[in-house]
Description:
Blueprint: E1 11-17, E2 20-26, E3 38-44, E4 50-54, E5 74-78, E6 84-86, H1 89-95, E7 102-109, H2 110-116, E8 119-124, E9 131-132, E10 135-136, H3 144-157, E11 159-167, E12 170-176, E13 181-185, H4 204-216, H5 229-246, H6 266-273
Antiparallel strand pairs: 1-2, 3-4, 3-5, 5-6, 7-11, 8-13, 9-10, 11-12, 12-13
Amino acid sequence: xxxxxxxxxxxxxxxxxxxxxxxxxxxxxxxxxxxxxxxxxxxxxxxxxxxxxxxxxxxxxxxxxxxxxxxxxxxxxxxxxxxxxxxxxxxxxxxxxxxxxxxxxxxxxxxxxxxxxxxxxxxxxxxxxxxxxxxxxxxxxxxxxxxxxxxxxxxxxxxxxxxxxxxxxxxxxxxxxxxxxxxxxxxxxxxxxxxxxxxxxxxxxxxxxxxxxxxxxxxxxxxxxxxxxxxxxxxxxxxxxxxxxxxxxxxxxxxxxxxxxxxxxxxxxxxxxxxx
Length: 276
């Protein structure tokens, strides 16, 4: 059963198409359903009682800021009543003994796959080398031809393979694509129920107008998606490091919230965009 629909927007996305700008509210589409362990350290509350303080990523006590030795970190899961329960690595493995198992579920039409599942993380799979006594053997993998044949069949039949693979004690479903991709899929409980889309009636002319707009701004080739933000952030980090060393301050650019023009006739702007 899907998770509840999101109730709170995480921001607004202004999408400008031609002369028309659509201000769209952004909502999270997924929900973490896994039972996860968090890091804590035992501390004194000042009254002689032992309490657990959360530990940050760089091994520090989030309550008092003190450094924490990794050997002192306690991994805990939260019970339904909020109680923090220490769970060791050995306890996890005691009931997650199927680590490394892979179960083939079946082949699925690509249309059904795309309509029912949400991808999580992409991997690549390739034929493994044959191992004897733990050592990889030279030459072509004996799995190469059967693997290539399965991929060819997936392309021909427009299918994906669905498997269940357990890695590090965590059983996940994966989709094997005809391009050798191996994509982990979110559980049904991790995908939020979709918020309703607006229900609107259109005239034939309005439909033609929207179709013409889409055709005008259609891309001939798929663009390469590059990360431009990380380079800017790293540049800022270097600038701030220099400023700290010199005892100066870094002046940050001001960020202005986009203003929504409620007087604009969006349908007129949509039409005018075709004339630009």
